[in-house]
């Protein structure tokens, strides 16, 4: 019976992983909108800029990184 038990403390990690994958997919799907948001947000921020505002390619790369981190979090929750 212990083999079927789920550690309830790790379920938030699975939820965070799922949310990161969804947010990363949204970055890939709507890259032009997120790039426009990041460039408006980064105006006058100096060193405190968001990483997606460099180019649309950087926005897509940021989305891929979010998906990778989300997958690692989801896998870490259940292994």
Present the secondary structure layout.
Layout lengths: L10 H19 L1 H12 L13 H23 L1
Helix pairs in contact: 1-3, 2-3
Please explain how this structure is put together.
By secondary structure, this protein is mainly alpha-helical. The protein has one domain. It contains 3 helices and no strands. It starts with 10 loop residues before the first helix and ends with a helix. The mean pLDDT is 82.
Give short descriptive properties of this protein.
elongated, 3 helices, 79 residues, single chain, mainly alpha
Rg over C-alpha atoms, rounded to the nearest angstrom: 16 Å
Count of DSSP strands: 0
Through-space gap between termini: 17 Å
Structural class: mainly alpha
Mean of residue pLDDT values: 82
Largest sheet: none
Poorly predicted parts:
none
Strand content: under 5%
Q: Which percent bin holds the helix content? A: 55-70%
Q: What is the helix/strand order?
A: HHH
Q: Identify the overall geometry.
A: elongated
- Helix count, per DSSP? 3
Total number of distinct structural domains: 1
Provide a quick synopsis of the model:
With 79 residues, this protein is mainly alpha-helical.
